[in-house]
Structure formats: C-alpha cells, structure tokens
Specification:
disordered N terminus; 11 helices; mainly alpha; 2 domains
C-alpha cells in the first residue's frame, strides 16, 4: 500500500482506527497467504516435471522399395505355384477326357453329409425303438433305443460304404475311350458282382429285422416261407422293412455323391487341382502377412519414443491441472475474504462513528479500494503441453504398406496373365 493510499484510507476511517483496520486485513490475509504458498509449491513441482519436448528420435522410415528381396521371392514362388496348378488342371482335363467324364467338382460338404446320415440313423432308431418297445421285446425304452440304434447304424453305415466303394464303379469307363477294354470291363464286372452280393446281404438284413418284429423275439429268428408269409400279415414288420429300405437307398446314394466325385480317380485329381489353387492364395496371404508384420514393426519402433514422451507430458499436465484447481480455490477464498472483510470494516466504521458522534456513510467504492486481495492472484500458472504428434508417421507407413500390397497383387496378376488367366 502506497503512502498516498494509506493517507486516503485514514481520511475515511480515521487515525485512531488505522490499527484495527490493519489487524482486520491481516486476519483475512493470513489464510489466503497459506493457500498462495501451497499454490506456488504446486507450480514449482509442475515446473520440475516440465518435459523438454525435443524432436522425437525417429527410426529410419521404411519404404516399399526396402522389400525388393521379398517381391523377388514372391514372384518366383507364385510363378511356381501357378505352374503347378496349371499342370494339375491339365492332368484333370486329360483324365476327364480319357474317362469320358463331363461332371463338375462336387460342392457337397462332407460335414453336412455326415450330419445327414447321423440324423437318418437317429430318426430310424427312434421309429424302430417305438415298434420294438411296443412288442415288449426289450426290458425298457433305453434297451429298445440301444437295439434300434445298432440296427439303424448298421444299415446306414453299410449302405453308405457300399455306395462309396461299389456304386461308383458300376459305370466305370462307360464313356471312356476304349471303355470296353479289359481294365474298365474288369472293374465294372467286379463292382457288379459286389453290388449283387450287397443287395442280397441288405435284403437279408431287412427281412431279419421284419421277422424279429413279426416273431417278437430277437434271440432266434426262423427264416422260412411260412415265416415270410406270416411276416407279411404283420403291418409293423412291413413298415420296418420299407423304412429300412428307404434309409438304405438314401445312404447308398449319399455314399456315391456326397464324399467324393461320383467317378473314381477323378476326385483325387479334382482335390489336387483345388489344393494347388488354394496353395497360390495361401502363398499370397503368407507374403501379405510378412509385409504387414514388417510395417507393424516399423510402427512400433516409431511409437516407442513418442509413447515415452506422451507419458511425461501426461504426468506434467496432471500437475498443471492440480495448479489450476488450486488457483480456482485461491480465487474463491479471496472473493469470500474480501466480502467478509468489507462487511466487518463497514460495521467497524459505523460503530466508531456512532460512538464519536460523527456518523458517516462509507461509499462502496471506498470499501472496495480499502479491501482488495487481488495481489494474491497475480501468479503465473504453468501452461499445458500438447502430446507429440505421430499421425503423420502412421499415415506414411500406411501408404507404403498399401504400395507393397499393391505390388504383391501385381505380381500375382502378372503370373496369372502369363499362364493365360486360368488360375
């Protein structure tokens, strides 16, 4: 407070009240000074944490041209894979021409086919169990289901295997060049005899199941003309034979068409051709993964120093936030102290005026000038610091990565074009 201001204040409050006025100011300033000291301490701590954000030490920028060795390997390997695929495709076409096979690759899923057969097994087993349990041939529903499941499983498995190992050879070489020659004819004759044997076996199996239901016994079944005639008079037995026969036909056809090419020896070449084609794509995927890993490593190398500085900046900014919070608390305390102190000073001046017989109103402007703690708010707070930017580095790496993958795609297209575009 300057001498001029002190004289002006004494003119308002009087010479005798000057000591009380000073004591009043001191009482309100003391808590503010403590908070100001705490704020300065936090600012000093923040200044100690202030990072020196120098240029981030960057690793050497990786470019598409750095992968020339990988492109050279990819070009040679893809070319080899394309040639292998072309050879397998030509072998398949030659085999189809020789055997006179005009079918296409089977799109049937083996998993779906197996699930279909299993559903047939359980469906037939449930029907058989109902008939066997109804005849009181078994101890209970569980035993009926077990017996029926074994019957159904045998029926479906045998017929599916017959379709796969026998049915596909019945017309082996019918449309082939020289289809009437010995190798083709022998296989067809062999398959035909096997098929007749299978028919006799599966017919005997279904008749036995029908007799079991008709005679209501599973221990000893009588195979005779009278037993067959009596079985025909039992609707449940006829139903079991018809149902089992339908399942046999379905399973037999599933065995022919669902697990491999319906024509033997073509399926193996079809799988080889599909494998060679997939091998080309797998090779491209492997090289693409190498490119991706190469640029991901570069991104990690670029990110490591920036992450370290980012942590330092975050720690410093937290300290600055604490300073700002302390500054707001100090300002709030200053305003509350000014209001309370002005009120007490006005009351003190009024009381003194009444005692001395010299009453006077104290202007609000004078009170504001006499009680002001703004000097305690004149403190500089450390500024926030922005974290380091790495977006440009990531963008450059992404551009180079896309260039490398585009180059790899061009290698595949060139190899495919050189092969006539058939891969």
């Amino acid at each position: 407070m300057s001498s001029y201001e002190r004289t002006a204040h004494q003119a308002v409050i009087g010479q005798k009240m000057d000591g009380q006025y000073q004591k009043l100011l001191s009482d309100y300033e003391r808590p503010i000074q403590k908070k100001l000291f705490g704020l300065k301490r936090k600012c000093a701590e923040a200044e100690k944490l202030s990072p020196e954000l120098a240029e981030i030490p960057t690793a050497p920028q990786r470019q598409c041209e750095d992968l020339e060795y990988l492109f050279a390997c990819a070009e040679q390997e893809v070319k080899d894979k394309v040639q292998v695929h072309e050879l397998t495709r030509k072998s398949l076409n030659a085999a189809q021409l020789y055997h006179g096979y005009v079918g296409s690759n089977s799109d049937n899923s083996i998993v779906v086919s197996i699930l279909t057969l299993l559903s047939m097994v359980f469906g037939e087993a449930l029907l058989n169990a109902a008939f066997l349990s109804n005849a009181h041939m078994v101890a209970g529903p569980a035993a009926a289901l077990l017996t029926s499941f074994l019957i159904s499983m045998t029926n479906v498995a045998v017929c599916a295997c017959a379709g796969f190992f026998i049915g596909r050879y019945l017309k082996y070489g019918d449309n082939a060049l020289g289809g009437e020659e010995s190798p083709f004819r022998k296989k067809r004759m062999k398959a035909r005899f096997q098929f007749y044997g299978f028919l006799a076996l599966i017919l005997f199996f279904h008749l036995t199941v029908g007799l079991v239901r008709a005679q209501e016994t599973i221990d000893s079944v009588d195979h005779s003309l009278f037993a067959y005639l009596e079985m025909l008079c039992t609707p449940e037995a006829v139903f079991l034979i018809l149902m089992g026969s339908c399942m046999s036909v379905i399973a037999y056809n599933k065995g022919i068409y669902s697990f491999d090419c319906p024509y033997p020896e073509i399926g193996q070449l079809q799988r080889a051709e599909a494998t060679a084609k997939d091998d080309i794509q797998n090779t491209l995927d492997d090289f693409e993964e190498e490119i991706t890993a190469y640029f991901e490593d570069a991104e990690k190398e670029q990110k490591s120093p920036s992450d370290t500085q980012r942590k330092v900046v975050d720690q410093y900014n937290k300290a600055v936030s604490a300073c700002q919070e302390a500054r707001r608390t100090l300002e709030q305390s200053v305003r509350e102290a000014e209001t309370a102190c002005r009120g007490e000073l006005a009351e003190l001046i009024t009381t003194y005026g009444c005692i001395s017989g010299n009453e006077q109103d104290v202007p609000m402007e004078a009170l504001q000038q006499m009680v002001s703690f703004d000097k305690y708010l004149d403190i500089e707070i450390p500024a926030y610091r922005a974290p380091p930017e790495t977006g440009a580095l990531k963008s450059d790496l992404l551009v180079e990565k896309n260039r490398a993958i585009h180059r790899l795609t061009q290698i595949f297209q060139s190899a495919n074009h050189a092969n006539g575009g058939k891969s």
